[in-house]
Structures are given as structure tokens and as C-alpha cells.
Amino acid sequence: xxxxxxxxxxxxxxxxxxxxxxxxxxxxxxxxxxxxxxxxxxxxxxxxxxxxxxxxxxxxxxxxxxxxxxxxxxxxxxxxxxxxxxxxxxxxxxxxxxxxxxxxxxxxxxxxxxxxxxxxxxxxxxxxxxxxxxxxxxxxxxxxxxxxxxxxxxxxxxxxxxxxxxxxxxxxxxxxxxxxxxxxxxxxxxxxxxxxxxxxxxxxxxxxxxxxxxxxxxxxxxxxxxxxxxxxxxxxxxxxxxxxxxxxxxxxxxxxxxxxxxxxxxxxxxxxxxxxxxxxxxxxxxxxxxxxxxxxxxxxxxxxxxxxxxxxxxxxxxxxxxxxxxxxxxxxxxxxxxxxxxxxxxxxxxxxxxxxxxxxxxxxxxxxxxxxxxxxxxxxxxxxxxxxxxxxxxxxxxxxxxxxxxxxxxxxxxxxxxxxxxxxxxxxxxxxxxxxxxxxxxxxxxxxxxxxxxxxxxxxxxxxxxxxxxxxxxxxxxxxxxxxxxxxxxxxxxxxxxxxxxxxxxxxxxxxxxxxxxxxxxxxxxxxxxxxxxxxxxxxxxxxxxxxxxxxxxxxxxxxxxxxxxxxxxxxxxxxxxxxxxxxxxxxxxxxxxxxxxxxxxxxxxxxx
Length: 609
Hints:
Layout: H1 23-33, H2 37-49, H3 60-77, H4 82-87, H5 89-102, H6 107-124, H7 129-139, E1 144-148, E2 163-166, E3 172-175, E4 183-187, E5 195-205, E6 208-221, E7 224-225, E8 229-233, E9 244-254, E10 265-268, E11 271-274, H8 278-285, H9 288-315, H10 330-357, H11 362-390, H12 392-395, H13 402-414, H14 419-427, H15 429-434, H16 458-475, H17 486-512, H18 516-536, H19 538-543, H20 549-568, H21 570-575, H22 591-599
């Protein structure tokens, strides 16, 4: 399906037939996506051109091969260099976001190729001939990049089990010493697709364990698997067709230049030369994961934007007989206004984190990514679940994309660090800071991802107070009788901080908008999001004496008023997402006719006419 874009602006969304975009919609788009309209339009056109629609009867394997074909075409259409795409943070973010929306089968393989493999070599490599040869193949997408990190026994920080044993000739032998060390889930099973991989493994020199390092290997070429590598395809997942596999190493040879140690780690005369501690070596090795976390989380939110847009478009057509359209029913409006407020808050949050990602010290950047990923992806899944349910039977069909978007988010929740693990890690930082076991700037309650608004609404002050109380109890190790345990308390604090930051980001977007009407709408959305979060934690606020019964009643009245205001402007708010016309029956102007066309039943009258 082709689309036409007005100059320097995204085309109209599913909500409108007209291509006219007023100044308010443009201002909302800028708050969500930034002001580089040319970049967004260019990437979106490239994704739509891939024509990633569901093909009835397509096999899992054919979908897998199609995803790699789409990746090669995308690289070609965006200039022919994977390396340039990976190095341009704004471009890479746009690639992930628009893939999530218009090419959901492509999204799952993007992170491994662009961020973890290509970006990993750029960030951790030393420019040797071998590394440059591998990079050239990845750059052209002649080979696809993958990270082999997760292990069957679990990937628990520095406790990696795969071994890379240094040999007298300078090479390394990769070895899987026991079942728990089997690499689990990387997408390397497809025999016809060359794969160049980065493997995290424990470096062993003369019997001494030197810690975890990354190693570069041409795992699969046109000639087949590398010697000493066994690959077994895993059963299919419930979503996102991929050639996931288990990998066992039986002394597979990695060239001497396969150690990705940059200028900070090398083997000289049979001895490791590295100034970093063992723990620091691991964190340097997995540093490319940090950008992957926030890029993938942003893609999850992009899928949620698409889900709300397609659901709103369908709801305006769906009627029960001669009754009101689904979009006019109050229960539906309550659900969709909540979803739209959540999507706006998450989109402004991910934009703020992305924009500040390259300007922070590595450790602070890492904490920001770990803090943001859970709330972004968890909220995206919540929104998409509501959209799928409100679309009823239509929402269950892959042809209507909702299950594709939700499935990808399910994968994102696990990828680059499972969400709950990240929440426990970040939520325990304040206590570690208080005990001197972590530097002060790692305290998540002190991480101002953006500037707080000057005039803080009452509900925003309560969000901040919840965070302060949880942080103060965490610092002294008091988890409280109403909390299940220390991990649960950490999750509460991490979530409270993330929710406060999301509200901050949306309020800041409202303040900075140049359009008066957009400022008002963004402010109402921020209030709707913040008040809904207060309502969700109302029992906690009451128990801590922070919310009186009178204020609780007022909260409900204000939240309902905000939802009504959002409902009155849903066309404008959803249109600002810029979602293109998708190849889905419920994305058309007449979903009933679209299904009749699918069946070839042109003799029927739609709507009983």
C-alpha cells in the first residue's frame, strides 16, 4: 500500500482521510517524535515499503526467511550501510519504532544485528583485519549479526559459564562445559542465512579464570556451521517468528583477533593485559545492551501507539445494529482515554531518556536504561491488551496486527534483561548508595532524567512523595509489614520513580510546546496519567496518611473530568501518532467490505443496504 506524505510532515493517521495536519497536531507530533520530520518520514516510508502483512498459510520458516530479506532491503533503502544506521542514534531509534508499527516481523532481529553485533564491534573492537572483515559483511547485511549471551542455566551477571580457553598460538577454544552453559534462544537456526555472532564467555588463560569477555565468530557462513559448533532449532514461540536455537561449543576456534577488548584488554605473551576489575570487564562487555534496552522499549511504546490508533479507527465503524458506535460508548472511551494518556506519557519519557542517553556517564546511562525499560514495555503491553480485547474477535486475528504488536512486546519484556530483574536491581540502589556500596549518582531517586516543571500540580507532588517515602525506607532496610520482601520493595520503588519521571516528561512537554491548544491537551493528558497512577496506589496513600477520604473522592472527580476532555479530542490526539494506513482490514475505511473482498464475496451488500 502506498501513502503520500505532505511536505516535511508525517501523513495523516488512520483517523482522517484528509492529509491536512493543523498546527496543534504538528505540535503534538513534535512533543512525541521530535522535530526531525524528514527523518521520521524517510524511515516510515521505508518500513511501509517492506509490505509486512500477514500472509494466510505462510509457514513459520517462510516468515523467518522473509524477516531477513526485509532487513537486507531496509539496509539498502536507508543508504546501504548497517554501520551508519547503528551509529546514528536518532536514525536507529526511528528504525526500531517504525519497524514495531509497520514491519513487526522485522523488529525482533534488529537489535541483534544493529545494536549488539555491529554496535558491539564498533564499541568493543580494535580494528583488526579479522574484525574489519566481519564488520564489512555485517555492514552490507551479507551476514546477520546476533549476540550469544543468555545461557540455559540462566544469565546471572558475571556468572557466565561458557569458556573461551586461550591457546599457545593465540586463538581461543569455545567450550560448553555443562548443560547450564548451553547458549539459549539466539536466532541462528536458519541454515541459509550467514550469521556472525558475539559470544560472551569466561576467558581462561593457563587455567586462570580472567572473567567475562566478548568474542567474535563467523558462526554460520554459506559453507555451513563453523567447526565445533552444534545448533539445534528450538520449538516455535507463540509470537514473532524467529529461528531460535540452542548452541553448544565443542572447542570451536575463535581467531586471536576475535577477542573484543578494544584498547582496554588484550593478551600479550600469554598474559592478559587489562586495567579493569573482573566485574568491570563484564559490564564493559555487555555495555551495548544498554542502548538496546531503551531502543527496544521505545519500540514497544511505538507498537502501543499503533494499537490505540487502529482500535480507535475500528471503534468508529463498529456498531451493534442501529445503536451507537463503539467509539461513543462510555466504557470504551474510559479505556481508550486511559490508554492514550499512558501512551503519551511513555512516549515523552522514552524520548527524554533517548535524548540524554549519549550525554551521560556510562554508569548513569545504564541505570536510566534499566529504570525506563520495565515501565515502558509493561505499560505498552497493558495498552495493547486493552486494545485487543476491545476489538473482540477482530483483535485476535494476526491480519489486524494487534497480536503481532503485543507478541513483540512480550519478547521485549524478556530481552536485554527481564523486567523484574531490572526493577529489583534499580530499586535496591538507594540502600547501596546509603551504605557506600554504590556512588551517589547511581541513586535512582536523584536521577533527574529531565527538569521538573516549576508549577507542580498536587497529584504530581503525591507521586514524588510516594517515591521519597519508599526511598527513605529502602535506605535503612525497612521494607514494611505490608511488603512481601526485599525484592518486592525494590520493585515498588523502581516503579514509583519511573511513574514520577513519566509524569514529569509529559508535563515538561506541555510546558515546552509552542502551540497553546497542544499545551492544554498535553497538560490534561499528564493529569489523566498522574491521577490514574494515584488511584492505582490509593490504598498505599491512605495507609500512609497522604490521602484523605475527601481528597480521594476529589481524585475520582478530577480523573473523570480529564478523561472526558481527552475523549473529546481523541481524533486529534491519535492522529498525532502519524500511523500509516496499514494492510489490516480494520485499518480500512470499511472493515466489513475489506473482509468481503478477502473472501471474494462481492455480491453481498454491506450494512444491509
